[in-house]
Design brief:
4-stranded antiparallel beta sheet, elongated, Outer membrane efflux proteins (OEP)
Length: 435
C-alpha cells in the first residue's frame, strides 16, 4: 500500500514539475489567444474582404472600358462575273481583316441604385468589423473560461492532495495503534480503503487538469502538450448594477449591432428594388479601326478608323410584374429584419437578467460557503485531536473529513460559478474587449 501511495505522489510531482515551468496569467492567455486563435484569423480575413469590396467601382460609379481586337484570314476559291461581262477566277485567294476598338460604357443614372450599393458595401464592411469584434469577444470569453477552469481544477487537486495527506496520516496512526494492540485489523483495512479512494480521486483529478490545459492550449493556438502553469486564485468582481449593464447591452452588444446592420441591409434592398421602376441612362464612346486586304474582289484593301459616341436609355414597361413582386417581398423581408432585431433584443435582455440573478445568487452562496468552510475546518481540527486520542472511530473521522472536502469544494465551486457569471455579463455588455 505504501508503494502505491508513493507512485501517486511521484506522478503528481512529475505533472506539477511539467506544468510549473511557466506561470501564465489570465492577461497573457488572452493575449496569446488574440494573436494565435484560428477563428480570429479567419474572421480577420473575412473582414478584410468586406473592406476590399467597399469601393466606388464595385458600387457601379465608374465606367467600364474594354479593348477588343481580332484578326481573321480566309483562303477561298472564287469565280466572279460582273455586269460588264468581265469574269475573274482565283484559286486559293487569301483575304485578311484586322479589327480593333476601345469601348466605354458609363451608367450615369440607374434610379440611385449605385448610391445604395455604395451604402450597402459600407454596411457590409462595418458588419465584417462587428463580426470580427464578436469573434474576438467570444474567443476572449472562451479563453477566460478555459483559464479559470484550469485554476479550478488545480485547486480541486490541492484539496485532494490535502485529503490524501490526511489519509496517509490516518493510516500511520492506525498502524501504530495496531502494533500496540489498540486497533483491530478491520480498522487497518478501512484506512486502506479510504487511502485508495483518495488516491484514485487524485489520479482522476490529474487527468482532468491535463485535459483542461489541453483545451486552453487549443484556444490560445498552441500545441496540446505545451507546458503551462496557471495562477492559483479566482478573482470575482462585485458591484454590477442591472440598469447600468442593460444600458451597455443596448449600445454595445455585438449581436444586437449585427442585427441592426442586417436590418439596414434589408432596408437598402427594399430601396434598390424600388429603383428598378426608374429608367437607366448610360453614355457610350469609343474608337474603332478596321483594315482588310483581299487578293480577289472589288477592293484590294480597305481601312477605316474613327470615333463613336452616343447615349442609351432603358425604361422598364412590363416584365411580368417582377419588379413589383420583388418590392412586395423586400417589404416583408424588411419587416422580418425588424422583428428579428426586437426578438434578439428581448432574448438578450432575458439572458442578461438570468445571468445577473445567477451572479447575485453566486455572491450570496460565496459568503455562505466561506462561513461553512470555517465551521467545517474548525470541526475537523477538533475531530483530528479526538481521533488521535482514540476516541473517534474511522467512519466518524472519515465523515468529518468528507464534510471538510465538500465545504472546500463548495467554496471553490461558488467562486468559479461567480466568475462565469461575471465574465458572461461583461461579454453581453460589450465590456469584455476594449478597443
Amino acid at each position: 500500500m505504501k508503494i502505491k501511495v508513493v507512485h501517486v505522489l511521484l506522478l503528481g510531482l512529475c505533472i506539477n514539475t511539467l506544468y510549473a515551468q511557466n506561470l501564465l496569467s489570465e492577461q497573457e492567455a488572452v493575449a496569446k489567444a488574440l494573436k494565435n486563435n484560428f477563428d480570429i484569423q479567419i474572421a480577420t480575413n473575412i473582414a478584410q474582404i468586406s473592406a476590399n469590396n467597399n469601393t466606388i467601382g464595385n458600387a457601379g460609379f465608374l465606367p467600364s472600358v474594354n479593348i477588343n481586337a481580332s484578326q481573321n484570314g480566309n483562303i477561298n476559291n472564287t469565280h466572279q462575273i460582273y455586269f460588264s461581262g468581265t469574269e475573274k477566277e482565283a484559286s486559293n485567294a487569301l483575304s485578311n481583316s484586322l479589327t480593333a476598338n476601345i469601348a466605354m460604357n458609363w451608367t450615369i443614372f440607374d434610379g440611385m441604385e449605385m448610391f445604395m450599393d455604395k451604402k450597402r458595401l459600407q454596411i457590409l464592411e462595418n458588419m465584417g468589423e462587428t463580426q470580427l469584434h464578436f469573434t474576438i469577444e467570444n474567443t476572449v470569453y472562451q479563453t477566460i473560461m478555459a483559464y479559470y477552469t484550469c485554476v479550478n481544477e488545480q485547486k480541486k487537486l490541492d484539496i485532494l492532495k490535502e485529503a490524501l495527506a490526511i489519509s496517509k496520516e490516518r493510516k500511520t496512526i492506525v498502524m501504530k495503534r495496531y502494533s500496540l494492540g489498540s486497533a483491530s485489523l478491520p480498522e487497518v483495512n478501512q484506512s486502506d480503503i479510504y487511502l485508495n479512494a483518495d488516491s484514485a480521486a487524485y489520479l482522476n483529478q490529474l487527468l482532468r487538469i491535463m485535459n483542461a490545459k489541453s483545451e486552453l492550449n487549443y484556444i490560445m493556438g498552441q500545441e496540446a502538450g505545451t507546458s503551462i502553469e496557471v495562477e492559483t486564485e479566482i478573482p470575482v468582481t462585485k458591484g454590477f448594477l442591472f440598469h447600468d449593464i442593460l444600458t451597455k447591452v443596448q449600445n454595445q452588444n455585438s449581436e444586437v449591432n449585427l442585427m441592426r446592420q442586417n436590418m439596414m441591409i434589408s432596408e437598402l434592398e427594399l430601396k434598390k428594388s424600388r429603383s428598378q421602376l426608374f429608367p437607366e441612362i448610360s453614355v457610350i464612346g469609343g474608337y474603332n479601326t478596321l483594315k482588310s486586304e483581299s487578293e480577289v474582289g472589288i477592293l484590294q484593301s480597305n481601312q477605316t478608323y474613327g470615333y463613336n459616341f452616343g447615349i442609351n436609355a432603358s425604361f422598364p414597361i412590363f416584365n411580368g410584374s417582377a419588379v413589383r413582386r420583388n418590392i412586395k417581398n423586400n417589404v416583408l423581408l424588411y419587416e422580418n429584419s425588424q422583428i428579428a432585431l426586437r426578438q434578439t433584443e428581448y432574448n438578450i435582455q432575458k439572458e442578461l437578467l438570468n445571468l445577473y440573478n445567477a451572479y447575485k445568487t453566486q455572491l450570496d452562496l460565496l459568503k455562505l460557503a466561506k462561513n461553512n468552510l470555517e465551521s467545517a475546518t474548525s470541526n475537523f481540527n477538533a475531530s483530528m485531536e479526538i481521533y488521535k486520542q482514540g476516541m473517534l472511530s474511522e467512519i466518524e473521522f472519515r465523515e468529518k473529513q468528507i464534510n471538510l472536502i465538500e465545504a472546500e469544494n463548495s467554496l471553490l465551486n461558488a467562486q468559479f460559478q461567480a466568475k462565469i457569471s461575471e465574465t458572461a455579463l461583461l461579454l453581453y455588455t460589450g465590456e469584455l474587449v476594449k478597443e
